[in-house]
């Protein structure tokens, strides 16, 4: 039987688009109000803020995150190749802007190690091209706190007016100019993606790709910090193969290691790791995480200052960190053109991490977020701060987990964190002058524990899905051994290739009947299935399209043990020889058989079926090549007096077959060719003569 299809009213797409445009372009007071409220979600939830219920949790989580942010911001400035003050600016402005525009109640947006690394790689490359020396181990400027102080070794004769910067601009000035231009472009990309609703791009970054990218980038971050751990002075490697080149330079210069830095690093790592492990073990008993990083920084700074480690042992220190804010400045347009391509992967990674974390915590705490608004929020967290000497930001998992564990209820906690950073910016920043860089490197390395522990999950990942494990390994290797941007691109392309290959060579099977039922399953996978006499049932577990057409035919011919084209050619050959013998008056054939015996030989013994049922339940769509392939097997098997029956086709496949002329012009034979279950097709085949 054939089910009657519903008649769908044809939609005039032009009218629909015009109606949407008219609705979007119209402006009423209510619509303007809704637009403002949607663009600044804080206007919706802040008037409903339950102060007595939420304020304590928000204040506590804000203070804890602020205390964590300060040492992390100073440490991550090493990754970005910038001065610590710029990391503090980034943390301050990102929290304020996300408070106004974000839809997640819990995520912590600010400085993030992977984004800092990607920014730092672009900054290093542009500094090299401009003729600057990347060696950042020169003695720090003494003390006046001026941001314009550059050591003489960092002044270059390169004509910086070509790049849109005046000739008096030194290394630090040029570096932050590159970083702000890069950040501005990343924010513009994110806003444009929000306007054109391109959030679907994040779907192509699978969990395996993101995990592999994060792990590979973590290895790069770890490698970049080793020279600070042991206090050696080696050039900052740049470009592809940075990880290998850096390790070669480290081993070549290992004899120059600074004993003071090595001892300090060993002590700091032991203290930090021990505190982290104890915190993880007793986190249910602790009301808030231990501020270990802050304690380590304070103690290390005091020891370095009063022990004069920089003067006596030549230990590298952070140097002067000025207070206050630098006057805002528009990012240089000419520099934007130089870094426009580099900003795209930063924009995508920043958005994907922010949205994925927002969705994860929204699901956990039973509320909803708007992914498109998240894209606008993180975009403006990059655009606006770029005018205030800040660099790219993203949501960070570690700080978000801390926020939720300390009672965060809303983004009020982000404002509290920003106030803590502001306090450091205005008053406390100069106190970190004597802080050793090896201490900052220890904080960065210990913060990578989560990403590096992904190596422990490889056996379980491999057991769960071998293809996903391969994607993880390829992405991680490319990110670490080539570069982070190339690694991300390789991961995306390789994961897509895996999907294509899996559809090109999908599972195929001949089905047998489950005894005493109307159900059929793979004969190779299940025991006690009975074959259906005179009927072959073939299953193809993928869409049928141009890329897997040949595999479909080869699998069908192999499993049924019959190639209709070869069989037809063999029959023609026999017929031709038969005619030749008859013309000669010989009633014996070439095989020495009689005419009647020859007729029997024309039907090969291996053809033990009279009907082929194709289970289309796993075929989600057909393209033109797929339709033509089914028409081809229909014709070829018909020449051998074998009928081809289709079962379990979805409506889109049926429509494709109709448009392709599979059922003929008037669809008159459709009920004899198409069945809604395999069992119906089998019963029909048995009734045929």
UniProtKB/TrEMBL annotation:
Stated name of the protein: Sulfate transporter
Membrane association type: Multi-pass membrane protein
Membrane-spanning ranges: 54-76, 96-119, 173-192, 212-230, 335-355, 376-398, 410-428, 472-501
Native source organism of the sequence: Oreocharis arfaki (tit berrypecker)
PROSITE patterns: SLC26A, STAS
Reactions performed catalytically: oxalate(out) + 2 chloride(in) = oxalate(in) + 2 chloride(out); bromide(in) + chloride(out) = bromide(out) + chloride(in); iodide(in) + chloride(out) = iodide(out) + chloride(in); nitrate(in) + chloride(out) = nitrate(out) + chloride(in)
Location of the STAS domain: 525-685
Domain of life of the native organism: Eukaryota
Family of the protein in this entry: Belongs to the SLC26A/SulP transporter (TC 2.A.53) family.
Any Pfam family: STAS
Gene Ontology cellular component terms for the protein in this record: apical plasma membrane
One GO molecular-function entry: secondary active sulfate transmembrane transporter activity
Keyword Kinase in annotation: no
UniProt keyword terms in alphabetical order: Cell membrane, Glycoprotein, Membrane, Phosphoprotein, Transmembrane, Transmembrane helix, Transport
Keyword Glycoprotein attached: yes
PANTHER family noted in UniProt: SULFATE TRANSPORTER
Name of encoding gene: Slc26a1
Cell compartments where the protein resides: Apical cell membrane
């Amino acid at each position: 039987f054939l089910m009657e299809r519903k008649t769908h009213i044809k939609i005039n797409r032009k009218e629909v688009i015009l109606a949407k445009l008219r609705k979007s372009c119209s402006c009423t007071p209510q619509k303007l109000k809704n637009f403002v409220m949607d663009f600044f979600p804080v206007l919706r939830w802040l008037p409903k803020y339950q102060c007595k219920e939420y304020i304590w949790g928000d204040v506590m989580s804000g203070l804890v995150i602020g205390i964590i942010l300060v040492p992390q911001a100073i440490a991550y400035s090493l990754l970005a190749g910038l001065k610590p003050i710029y990391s503090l600016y980034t943390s301050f402005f990102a929290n304020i802007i996300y408070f106004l525009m974000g839809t997640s109640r819990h995520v912590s947006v600010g400085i993030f190690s992977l984004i800092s690394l990607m920014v730092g790689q672009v900054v290093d490359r542009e500094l090299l091209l401009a003729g600057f020396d990347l060696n950042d181990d020169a003695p720090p400027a003494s003390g006046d706190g001026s941001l314009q102080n550059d050591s003489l070794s960092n002044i270059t004769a390169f004509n910086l007016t070509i790049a849109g910067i005046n000739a008096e601009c030194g290394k630090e000035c040029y570096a932050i100019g590159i970083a702000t231009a890069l950040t501005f472009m990343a924010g513009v990309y994110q806003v444009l993606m929000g306007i054109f609703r391109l959030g679907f791009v994040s779907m192509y970054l699978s969990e395996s790709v993101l995990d592999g990218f994060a792990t590979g980038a973590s290895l790069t971050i770890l490698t970049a910090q080793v020279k600070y751990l042991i206090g050696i002075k080696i050039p900052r490697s740049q470009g592809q193969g940075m990880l290998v080149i850096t390790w070669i330079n480290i081993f070549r210069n290992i004899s120059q290691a600074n004993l003071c830095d090595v001892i300090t690093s060993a002590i700091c790592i032991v203290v930090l790791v021990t505190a982290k492990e104890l915190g993880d073990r007793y986190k249910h008993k602790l009301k808030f995480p231990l501020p270990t990083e802050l304690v380590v920084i304070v103690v290390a700074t005091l020891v370095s200052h009063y022990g004069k480690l920089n003067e006596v042992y030549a230990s590298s220190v952070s140097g002067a960190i000025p207070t206050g804010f630098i006057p805002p400045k528009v990012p240089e347009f000419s520099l934007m053109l130089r870094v426009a391509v580099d900003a795209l992967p930063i924009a995508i990674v920043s958005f994907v991490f922010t949205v994925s974390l927002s969705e994860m915590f929204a699901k956990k705490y039973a509320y909803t977020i708007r992914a498109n608004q998240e894209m606008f929020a993180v975009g403006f967290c990059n655009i606006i701060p770029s005018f205030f000497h800040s660099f790219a930001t993203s949501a960070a998992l570690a700080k978000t987990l801390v926020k939720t564990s300390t009672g965060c209820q809303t983004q009020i906690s982000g404002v509290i964190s920003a106030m803590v950073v502001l306090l450091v910016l205005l008053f406390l920043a100069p106190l970190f002058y004597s802080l050793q860089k090896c201490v900052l490197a220890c904080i960065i390395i210990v913060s990578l524990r989560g990403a590096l522990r992904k190596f422990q999950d490889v056996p379980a990942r491999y057991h769960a899905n071998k293809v996903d494990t391969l994607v993880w390994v390829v992405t991680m290797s490319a990110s670490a051994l080539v570069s982070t941007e190339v690694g991300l691109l390789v991961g995306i392309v390789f994961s897509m290739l895996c999907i294509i290959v899996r559809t090109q060579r999908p599972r195929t099977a001949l089905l047998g009947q489950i005894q005493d039922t109307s159900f059929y399953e793979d004969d190779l996978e299940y025991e006690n299935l009975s074959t259906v006499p005179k009927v072959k049932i073939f299953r193809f577990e993928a869409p049928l399209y141009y890329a897997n057409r040949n595999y479909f035919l080869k699998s069908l011919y192999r499993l049924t043990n019959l190639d209709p084209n070869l069989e037809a050619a063999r029959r023609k050959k026999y017929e031709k020889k038969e005619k030749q013998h008859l013309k000669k008056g010989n009633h014996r054939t070439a095989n020495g058989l009689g005419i009647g015996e020859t007729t029997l030989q024309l039907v090969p013994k291996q053809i033990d079926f009279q009907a082929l049922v194709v289970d289309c339940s796993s075929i989600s769509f057909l393209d033109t090549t797929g339709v033509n392939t089914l028409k081809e097997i229909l014709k070829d098997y018909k020449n051998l007096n074998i009928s081809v029956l289709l079962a379990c086709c979805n409506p889109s496949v049926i429509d494709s077959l109709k448009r392709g002329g599979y059922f003929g012009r008037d669809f008159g034979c459709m009920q004899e060719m198409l069945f809604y279950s395999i069992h119906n097709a089998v019963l029909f085949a048995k009734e045929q003569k």
